[in-house]
Amino acid sequence: MVAFLWINGVRHDMTTDVGFDLVIGVAEGGIGLERAAATIDAHTVERAAQ
Description:
This protein is of the alpha+beta class and 50 residues long.
């Protein structure tokens, strides 16, 4: 996911705990597509131009 975001001009600002909960939640089936997308969207910021 990090590489995909980077290629598309954004980065994430998730804490380790938020990222862990997201990955485990998706893997266990407790977090669906809409909630996962909302979590990712809430934690993305534009990266500085290089």
